[in-house]
Amino acid sequence: MARVPRRDVRYADDPFGRAVRAAVADRLQARGLTPTGGRRLWIKAVVITAWVLGSYSVLVWAPISSLVTALATVSLGLASAGMAMSVKHDALHRAFSSRRAVNTGVAHVATFYGLSASWWKHKHNRLHHGFTNVAGVDDDIDQGRLVRLSVTQAWRPWHRWQHLYMWGVYPFLFYLSGMLGADLAYVLFGRIGGRQVGPPGVCRALVRLADKLKGLVLLVGVALLFHPVAAVVAVAFAASVIMGTVWSVNIVVQHTFESDAFLEAEPVSRRVGLGWAEAQVRGTANVAVRNPVWRWYVGGLNRHIEHHLFPRLSHVHLDEIAPIVRSECRRHGLPYCEFPSVWSALAAHHRFLRELGRCPAPVELPSAHVVA
After folding, report:
1. Entry pTM
2. Could you tell me if residue 231 is inside a domain?
3. What region, left, alpha or beta, does residue 154 occupy, with left being phi > 0 and alpha being psi -120 to 50 degrees?
4. Strand, coil or helix: what is 286?
5. How many domains are contained in the chain?
6. Which residues constitute the domain of residue 331?
7. Does the residue 73 lie in any domain?
8. Quick check: is 263 in a domain?
C-alpha cells in the first residue's frame, strides 16, 4: 500500500455533511447544550480517577493475597482503559472543557500510561479522524504485513489464518506496540508511519520523551520503593495487556467489519470518491448502544458514527444527536451500521478477517447490521 501524503488527499462534495451539521447544531441550540461535557464529564472523570488510584493504591500499599493482587491488576487495567476512553479522549479532542488550557491539562494528567499526548493528537485526531480508512494515510488500518485489515492492502499467504492468530496479537498490538514502537518513533524523530508530522531535533525529542514517560515513571517508580522489580514488572505488564485488549476490541470492531468502506485516493487528482462525512458513516459502526454499562465505560465510543461526525462534541451528548444522525442517513440513502452487542461486533470482525485472508484479490463483503 503506497503512502499517500496527507496534504494531497481531497474529499468530494459533501451535501450529507452540511445537512447533518446544520440539523445537529439546531438540536444543540434548542436544548441549550454546549459542545463540552460540563459537570457530567467532570463527575465521571473524578469517578474514574478514583478507580485508577484506588486500584493502584491497593496494589502498592495494601497487604493483599495473590488472588486479590490479580483482581486489583485487572481492575487497574480496566480503569486505565476507561480513563483513556472517557477522559483523555474527550480532552484531546478539546471536548472536555471550553478552555484550551483545561483540555491540555486534563489530557496530560489522564495520559499516564506511557503514550505521548502529542503523538495521539497527530495519529488519532488528524490522520485517523481526518482520513478514516483511507489507504496510506489512516495508520490504524496499517499494521504492517502481519494482518490485512483493508481490501486495499496486499494479501500474503499467512493471512489465511489471521482470523485465528490475531486474537492473540490484538492485546499487544495497539497499546504495547504503540508505546514501544510507533509512539517512540514519533517521540525521537517526529514521524508517524513513515511521514514527518512533527519537527525533529534533540530538544523537541526530549520534551516529547518527558511527555511520554512522565506518568509511567512516577507510578512505576513509587511501586518499586515497596515491591521487588519482578513483581512490579509483572503487574505492569498484565495491566497493560488488559488495557490493550480493551483498546483493541474498540478499535477493530468499529472500523473493520463486513460492510466497511475502504478508500483510495486517485493517483493523479488525489481525490477520494466520497464526501468526508459520508466516508465517516460508511466506514464506522456503533456497538452495544443500549448497554448502559458499556456505554458509560467506553466514553461514548460505542456511538462511533456520531463521534466521527462530531469529534469536537463531548461523548455525553452523543445519545442526544443520534436520532438526528440516523434520520439524515436515511434521508440521504446512507447506511447506519449498528451492532446490538459487543459479541456480535466481534463476530462480524472475525468473519471480516477470515474473508480478507481467504482471497488475494479485493473481495465483495456482505452487508452488516444496517439500521433502517
Report:
1. 0.89
2. yes
3. beta
4. strand
5. 1
6. 6-358
7. yes
8. yes
